[in-house]
Amino acid sequence: MACTIVVGYMPGAIGKVTQLHAGYYHRNWGFGLYFEAKIATELAQFMQSFNPVRDGFWAVVDDQIVGSIAIVGDQSDARRARLRWLIVDPEYQGRGFGKSLLKEAVGFCRESNFNKVYLTTFAGLDVARRLYEQSGFTIIREEEGSYWGKPVLEQTFELIL
Asked: How much is the average pLDDT of 9-28?
């Protein structure tokens, strides 16, 4: 089966996207239970309150989910959105799926008339950073923090639409 990008929720999405994040960040950054539980909880909350007018979810599927991205519309500022949960299974990296997912998400933001889209990440994810910067995102803040469950240099990127 060829990989396709599927729009919207599909059964198993919460578990699989959480698994992709937990596995990758544990192997490469030593993140553990705190991080996995945070991803699962926040992703489940997003799916439960999903509003297709302001929110978007896309998955790369090859019999199962091998990548994802989401847009969470800001409930307090209708002109702003947050990009979340961009990940591609390491076996599928280097094939342009991350770029395709990001293009879908930014396109949704433009069509939804958001003025800004932002994301939070941390220093050291150089491939992702290049992808964000090539798409027009700029870094607007860096600070030490432990949102991820252990101390890292947290970064906020923003794209003005």
From this structure: 96
Name the residue among 49, 115, 127, 51 with its Cα closest to residue 81: 115
The dihedral through the CA atoms of 58, 48, 160, 148 has a sign that is negative
pLDDT tens sequence across 132-157? 999 999 999 999 988 778 899 999 99
pLDDT band at 1 (very low <50, low <70, confident <90, very high): low
Angle at which helices 13-29 and 33-48 cross, to 10°: 150
User: 3-state class of 4 per DSSP?
Assistant: strand
Q: Which helix (H) or strand (E) holds 20?
A: helix 13-29
In the chain, where are the structural domains located?
Answer: 4-115
The model carries a pTM of: 0.94
Q: Is 40 helix (H, G, I), strand (E, B) or coil?
A: helix
Q: Is it true that domain 4-115 has CATH number 3.40.630.30? A: yes
In terms of DSSP bridges, do strands 80-88 and 116-122 run parallel, antiparallel, or are they unpaired? parallel
Q: Does residue 51 surpass a pLDDT of 70?
A: yes
- Whether the CB-CB separation of 60 and 68 falls below 8 Å is answered with yes
